[in-house]
Amino acid sequence: MFSLQEIKKSGIAAIWFMFLTFPIMVIRVNPLERTIQWRWENMLYVGIGVFAFSFLWREMLRRKEMGLKKKMQEDGSEKPGFLQKAAENPRLILPALGLVMGIALLFPHLVNPYQISIMTLALIYVVLGLGLNIVVGQAGLLNLGYVAFFAVGAYTYALLNKHFGLGFWACLPIGAGMAALFGILLALPILRLRGDYLAIVTLGFGEITRIVLENWGKFSGGPIGIRGIPRPDFFGMSFSLSEAIMYIYYLMIAAVILTIFVINRLQNSRLGRAWVALREDEIACQAMGIDKAKVKLSAFALGATWAGMAGVIFAGYNTYINPKSFTFMESVIILSIVVLGGMGSILGVVLGGLIMILLPEYLREVGHYRMLIFGAAMIIMMVFRPQGLIQSKRKAYEFQEDKGAA
Amino acid sequence: MLTIESINTYYGNIRALKNISIDIAQGEIVALIGANGAGKTTTLKSISGITPPRTGRIRFMGKEIQNAAPEKIVAMGLCHVPEGRHIFPQLSVMENLEMGAFLRRDKAEIKKDLDYIMSLFPILAQRRKQAGGTLSGGEQQMLAISRALMGRPKLLLLDEPSLGLAPLIIRQIFEIIEQINRSGTTIFLIEQNANLALKSSHRGYVMENGEITLTDTADKLLSNEDVKKAYLGI
Ligand SMILES: Nc1ncnc2c1ncn2[C@@H]1O[C@H](COP(=O)(O)OP(=O)(O)OP(=O)(O)O)[C@@H](O)[C@H]1O
Ligand SMILES: [Mg+2]
Q1: pLDDT, tens digit, for every residue of A3-47?
Q2: N or C: which end of chain A has fewer CB within 10 A?
Q3: B41 in ligand 1 pocket by Cβ < 6 Å?
Q4: What pLDDT shows up at residue A83?
Q5: Which family does the entry's similarity section mention (chain B) (predicted)?
């Protein structure tokens, strides 16, 4: 493994990285004293680090490839990893579910309100991820403007409450419905688009929504947004702050369970199968007698519904909203949740959502480097496990196989 | 069973089909042959509603379908195996077949049809769990045909079933096409391989530049001097 060629490769990588990181690692400008400090020793560390790491990297890639080949030889398909196996073992499912539920229910009693809030936010993103998963993971339609539906839900609650005094529970279905309506509105003009074009149009849609919210001050409060949105109530009862935080947390747990339940049902329904067909091959999908337009519309509308619901809860959770919460970056994070978790896999998306939101939050201690670590983690993930944490598994074939046939 | 009355189909301003008229009777195998770009694929797409004709009429089992949506046409029992097979690449062979029965709800009957197809194509039974995209070209063609059969078509439209396959496999596929036909499915097929297509068919149409130039029984076409020169390479 230490052949001359390898050493050369690693050497080039090391020099390249030394060059790349030169401005931030070596030069330090002190604006007060107007001096420049040259930290050449940092360059040495980068060089040595990259040199060593590149060997490790190649070795891991090699192992991965060898592993893949071996698996392919064995049974013609990829073998599931540890996490995958655990997720599919029927004997583990019930105890694991019980354990997770237990932790989820006890969690707010064990930690401080700040951590409950962070967890609630993560759960909101889990719902968003699950919703986007319908559109991207199931139906294969790249949507880069998904956050717009989140905004529609949040502003629906905020505005209806401000102008008409409608409460949280009344707004929850209205917000979800409004988002679905927007989903259909977006989907109608782009029924013929796919791939890159679809990505561009949806991206534009998301940005337009944000810009309208930012600039139509009379309607949306402009960049300042809307304040004083009431927290969710419990049959008219309202809570103290710490109780409310806990209540929203439990609400979110219920929302996640509901989402998983409904989406799981959808996945195994005729509609779910039509989504998969659409993702796989549009021409064949049509030849099977599937109405392409209807299937696309339903994917967009149903995906948007969950974003709308999450938006209403988010408005109640935050008590104030402004367009800053609904930027393109948010769409990217939600998309990353879906990709990181494993396109199409419900459990994967749940894990992805928790990791994507909690990890940067808890990495805050590491200060400036947290986004760097986060970015590196994403890259490593995509290189070594492009199918995501948990690979999506479609429901096995419904009909009994007759053993004699083969 | 299928009557096409002087249809004209356009791609933008390009007129791809010029007054095409075709008749197909119940129980027949009819072949449509012609050079590259003659408009054969367009003819099939016009029938199945993917590129509806601008003028003219298409009647299937007595109903006019020239303006019907593709999924409605499939539901009437007219299935199209598109050019280039279009297997669902990540779905297993079984799941592909299951998709073919998408519009049906009679589970017991679907099961019966599956068994029938497995007997027709034993290789698919062996490969039932393999992803469609990893099948060989011949296996994919068999899967594409069987998937269409899962919709219980009354009329099956086949677009170049021999495309890119070895002679031995082509012969095998044509034998199966004849077998499907004997069990009651009418077949309209497009072929570059005019010789084999006409040998399996009852009647044939010859197409050039968007027009039908010749139609006759398959035997007569096979011995026609013009056809021999242009399409049979004799
Ligand atoms: N989507 C399209 N847009 C514009 N023109 C098209 C389109 N599809 C086909 N055509 C044109 O229509 C004519 C007929 O094409 P068609 O695909 O029907 O030919 P074909 O007989 O099936 O040929 P081949 O044997 O090569 O498959 C060709 O000139 C082709 O360039
Ligand atoms: Mg063609």
Answers
A1: 888 888 888 988 998 888 888 888 888 888 888 888 888 888 988
A2: N
A3: yes
A4: 65
A5: Belongs to the ABC transporter superfamily.
Q: Which DSSP state fits A138?
A: I
Cα dihedral across residues B20, B21, B25, B29: positive or negative: negative
User: H-helix or E-strand containing B11?
Assistant: strand B2-11
Q: What is the CATH number of the domain that holds B207?
A: 3.40.50.300
Residue B99 lies in a domain: no
Whether A288 sits inside 8 A of B100 (CB atoms) is yes
Q: Measure Cα distances from A141 to A103, A129, A133, A144, A303 in Å.
A: 35, 14, 10, 10, 11
> Domain for residue B147, yes or no?
no
CB within 8 Å of chain B, chain A residues 70-129: 76-77
Q: Which chain A residues contact residue B107 at CB under 8 A? A: 398-399
Instruction: Give the closest of A286, A289, A394 to B95, CB-based.
Output: A394
Of A141, A127, A151, give the one whose Cα is nearest residue A208: A151
**Is the confidence at residue A373, as pLDDT, over 80?**
no
β-bridge mates for residue A151, sequence order: none
Tell whether A287 is within 8 A of chain B (Cβ): yes
Closest approach of B99 to chain A, Cα-based (Å): 7
Residue A74 backbone phi and psi in degrees, to 5: -65, -55
**Which residues pair with residue B205 across a beta bridge?**
B32, B215
Q: ipTM above 0.95?
A: no
Supply angle C-alpha A297, A298, A299, rounded to 5: 90
Within a domain: B112: no
Interval A312-363: pLDDT, tens: 999 999 999 999 999 998 998 899 888 888 877 888 899 989 988 888 888 7
CATH number of A91-384: 1.10.3470
pTM for the model stands at 0.83
CA distance A108 to chain B (A): 42
Does B117 fall in a domain? no
Ligand nearest to the CA of B39: 1
